[in-house]
Specification:
about 45% helix; binds iron/sulfur cluster; alpha/beta; 15 helices; 4-stranded parallel β-sheet; single chain; globular; TIM Barrel
């Protein structure tokens, strides 16, 4: 079959609602003409989400960078005695979260695997306190890797840990910690973190308890294209089982200050193709994010034409994970500028909450 015939066969599958298989995914990444992949992804994105491009008014806190998992791609973590190490007290977390609480809709917290903070003993009462003080703010807290760490520390099941956090006020889990869901890759880049099966199981249990989650893929380091596709297929498989993923977020590897720096920055073509292939492979996940903190606003605008329908929208300057890895994006960009960027790209800026309910625009 010629390349063009193969592209057309894949387009037919997509239009008839048939999920793409492994070889389709590899072909889209390696042989299919770039703009044709983008055009097909845009078609799917438009069918699912029209001309909307979602953003969220959100506050972001990395409450501790103390961590001993030593993931090789990480520029954020520090051991306890490192001068860079920090850990916010509960008072500081509440102060940062509750200052001008009417200014935002979602609180996003992730941090290291910190023996002194990342525990159910600390977080269950902390989540309750947050929920009591800012009940209108949806709480998107922790990654599956942090949940795995907390439950292991408490010697309880994922269900017990997640139930306690949900009952305290947790709305949703964040999608991080997935990296690449392939054992070969994890053995190299994050051998001390939750395994493939553990990461998936935390999300499975969360979905069963009515906790929605997001999912991510950290790409651009030691993984192969085949392993990226394997990752996407695992996410699609779990979504077919539970339906609990709201959004997929491709995360480009940032090389500064970590052991994998030799792999360098991802290229713009790889970033856009990854967004597009994700949109086409993950037919059962409604939303794909072009995360502007990672890509910069100009690439995020392009991402909206390559399958993404969401750009995130963090507006405080507290997202340290990408900053420590070399990102120079100004995270304090006002939300009105993000809305203008969406409009300039030709889409309708749409303020949403965690569950993608549409909210009144920011004036
Ligand atoms: S990625 Fe997370 S778990 Fe891994 S070292 Fe960094 S903070 Fe720790």
């Amino acid at each position: 079959m010629t390349v063009q015939a193969r592209v057309e066969a894949i387009a037919d599958k997509v239009r008839s609602g048939e999920p793409l298989d492994r070889s389709d995914g590899i072909f889209l990444y390696t042989e299919a003409p770039f703009h044709q992949v983008g055009a097909l992804a845009h078609e799917v994105r438009t069918k699912k989400n029209g001309h909307r491009a979602y953003y969220v008014v959100k506050r972001y806190l990395n409450t501790t960078n103390v961590c001993y998992a030593d993931c090789k791609f990480c520029s954020f973590a520090a051991h306890e005695k490192d001068p860079r190490a920090y850990r916010m007290s509960l008072e500081t977390i509440l102060e940062k979260a509750c200052a001008e609480p009417n200014d935002y809709d979602e609180l996003h917290i992730v941090g290291g695997h910190d023996p002194k903070q990342t525990s159910l003993d600390f977080w269950v009462p902390a989540v309750r306190a947050l929920h009591e003080r800012i009940p209108h703010v949806q709480l998107a807290l922790f990654t599956a890797a942090e949940i795995d760490y907390m439950c292991k520390r408490a010697r309880c099941s994922y269900e017990e840990g997640l139930r306690a956090l949900r009952d305290a006020g947790l709305t949703s889990l964040n999608g991080g910690g997935a990296e690449i869901l392939v054992k070969r890759v994890r053995d190299i880049v994050c051998p001390r973190k939750a395994s493939v099966e553990e990461w998936l199981e935390v999300h499975r249990v969360a979905h069963g308890l009515g906790i929605t989650t997001n999912c991510t893929m950290l790409y651009g380091h030691v993984e192969s294209i085949e392993e990226r596709i394997e990752h996407l297929l695992l996410l699609r498989g779990l979504q077919a089982e539970t339906g609990g993923f709201k959004c997929f977020v491709p995360l480009a590897f940032h090389p500064e200050g970590n052991e994998l720096h030799a792999y360098g920055w991802t290229g713009g073509i790889d970033d856009l193709r990854t967004i597009a292939v994700s949109r086409l492979m993950l037919d059962n996940i409604d939303h794909i994010k072009a995360y502007w903190i990672s890509y910069g606003i100009k690439m995020a605008q392009l991402g909206l034409h390559y399958g993404a329908d969401d750009i995130d929208g963090t507006v405080n300057n507290e997202q340290r994970i990408y900053r420590d890895a070399g990102s120079t994006t100004d995270q304090s960009t006002p939300i009105l500028e993000l809305r203008r960027a969406i409009e300039e790209a030709g889409f309708e800026p749409t303020r949403r909450n965690l569950l993608y309910r549409v909210l009144e625009p920011v004036s």
